[in-house]
Backbone:
């Protein structure tokens, strides 16, 4: 099982590195950091932050916009596409365990979606060091953990959708709908609904805590705006209930659990159904 | 291999409908039928890839539940090569590691089929030609230990030379290996097998023995006389390994026994030029 896992993970990395989507993906994140440097984001001052903190805050916001949809669409396109094209028929006729196959693919894919995002951020930090710009390492470490949790979460959801959908078109459509729903339940829209529909505050906060995009966004804000002034009324509930450290732990732990549970359900469906 | 009451439906469509089948060790069986008859579905059930009704057993093991143990014993060549992006060398390493074989053994089979994997090592599998892909997939299936070979239209993309080697390779494995060879044309596979099973709308329509004493490794000496030399005929005969003896009108050589129908099909295209044709079984060579 461990040998199968290692072989399949490596296979997925090699296949992804040769795919066009990976080139675009790496260019998007590498290019984003390069552009942020080029447009002098490190020189600007916002909310008392300057230097690399400002760049990281901007980068993390862009990641939230791009990473989930990119991970979802590329995962379902690749996994469901492989099934449709006959790759599963052939490779699953080799003596590979289904656990090794599924989790190996997920691990390989995690490496290829997370490493470019991390490397772009690390390259930014490296460049800042060379330019004698102070690097906020604590912020850097938290953002790394948050990005890893976000990538894992949407990868798990992507694997679940790929197990459920029998064709690329259906999988892609479902992935897009999931992403759109999560975007629709971000705080500004949620607050608007609360005001209009008089939804109880607890319900709105529960939805905000259950939406991995919102969790990621709030945690990213919390790191540079400890009072969550930007977030508005729901900040009080969140800070009262969790505290800063508790919320950061939730923000890293919850997406990891959600991604893992989604993938586990996906694996169960995959193992019990028709493979190709 | 044994199938008992094997049925498979996709929503309302019943693709396999109560198939009963037994295959003895070392038996070579052709699985034929029109497109949509259920051949690929049956193969996928055998490989444990589909959930199905009824009972499937390979060497007493259930593929769906004991897939690794079963698939360790099964070599498979698909009808359509999968669009794998991985390089040739990595595909060989990956398959060899899973099948407890070695890439060198698989590469050796590929070389015998006329494909040297070394210069193609870094080329993505999907960028190989149709024939190269087929040779590599055959090399992977035959370059490992297997008690059962499942071959789905295995020789469709091979040139006559590679087909001859392919028949030799099957012959070398014939003693202890069962083979299930699928095709939608009986004449493509009839000479490779001892038994034919025809599927029709998911049911066994025919289960018959093949009256053919020729083994997989036999060769037929061939003499052919034409009324006049012709460039197109010459090209076709050269691909079969025949040599020109007398100004392009007399040709001699030998062809693989299992490929005789296919050879006659080639010759029939030039029947108007044909004066005589002789096919005589050559004595088996000592190996």
Residues:
């Amino acid at each position: 099982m461990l040998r199968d896992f290692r072989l399949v993970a490596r296979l997925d990395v090699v296949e992804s590195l040769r795919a066009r989507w990976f080139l675009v993906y790496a260019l998007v994140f590498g290019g984003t950091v390069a552009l942020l440097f080029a447009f002098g984001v490190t020189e600007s001052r916002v909310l008392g932050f300057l230097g690399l903190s400002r760049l990281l805050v901007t980068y993390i916001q862009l990641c939230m916009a791009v990473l989930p949809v990119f991970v979802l669409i590329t995962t379902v396109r690749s996994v469901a596409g492989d099934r449709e094209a006959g790759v599963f028929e052939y490779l699953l006729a080799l003596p590979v365990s289904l656990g090794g196959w599924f989790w190996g693919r997920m691990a390989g894919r995690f490496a290829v979606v997370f490493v470019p995002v991390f490397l772009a951020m690390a390259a930014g930090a490296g460049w800042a060091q060379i330019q004698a710009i102070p690097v906020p390492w604590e912020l850097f470490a938290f953002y790394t953990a948050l990005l890893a949790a976000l990538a894992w979460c949407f990868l798990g959801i992507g694997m679940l959708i790929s197990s459920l959908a029998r064709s690329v078109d259906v999988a892609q459509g479902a992935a897009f709908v999931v992403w759109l729903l999560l975007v629709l339940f971000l705080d500004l829209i949620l607050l608007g609904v609360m005001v209009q529909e008089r939804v109880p505050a607890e319900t709105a906060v529960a939805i905000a805590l259950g939406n991995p995009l919102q969790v990621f966004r709030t945690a990213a804000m919390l790191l540079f705006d400890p009072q969550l002034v930007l977030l508005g009324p729901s900040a009080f509930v969140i800070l009262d209930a969790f505290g800063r450290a508790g919320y950061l732990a939730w923000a890293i732990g919850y997406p990891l659990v959600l991604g893992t549970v989604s993938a586990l359900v996906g694996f169960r469906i995959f193992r019990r159904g028709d493979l190709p | 291999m044994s199938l008992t009451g094997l049925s498979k439906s996709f929503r309302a469509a019943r693709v396999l409908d109560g198939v009963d089948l037994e295959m003895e060790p070392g038996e070579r069986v052709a699985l034929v039928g029109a497109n949509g008859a259920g051949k690929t579905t049956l193969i996928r059930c055998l490989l444990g890839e589909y959930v199905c009704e009824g009972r499937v057993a390979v060497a007493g093991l259930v593929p769906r539940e004991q897939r690794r143990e079963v698939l360790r014993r099964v070599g498979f060549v698909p009808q359509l090569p999968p669009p794998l992006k991985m390089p040739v060398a990595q595909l060989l390493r990956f398959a060899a590691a899973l099948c407890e074989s070695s890439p060198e053994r698989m590469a050796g089979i590929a070389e015998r089929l006329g494909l040297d994997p070394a210069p193609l090592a870094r080329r993505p599998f999907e960028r190989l030609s149709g024939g190269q892909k087929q040779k590599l997939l055959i090399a992977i299936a035959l370059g490992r230990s297997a008690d059962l070979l499942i071959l789905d239209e295995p020789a469709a993309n091979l040139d006559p030379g590679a087909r001859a080697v392919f028949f030799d390779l099957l012959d070398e494995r014939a003693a202890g290996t069962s083979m299930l060879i699928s095709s939608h044309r009986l004449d493509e596979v009839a000479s490779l097998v001892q038994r034919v099973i025809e599927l029709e709308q998911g049911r066994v329509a025919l289960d018959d023995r093949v009256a053919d004493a020729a083994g997989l490794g036999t060769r037929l000496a061939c003499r052919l006389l034409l009324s006049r030399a012709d460039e197109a005929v010459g090209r076709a005969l050269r691909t079969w390994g025949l040599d020109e003896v007398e100004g392009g009108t007399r040709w001699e050589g030998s062809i693989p026994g299992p490929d005789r129908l296919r050879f006659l099909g080639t010759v029939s295209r030039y029947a108007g030029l044909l004066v005589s044709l002789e096919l005589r079984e050559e004595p088996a060579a000592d190996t």
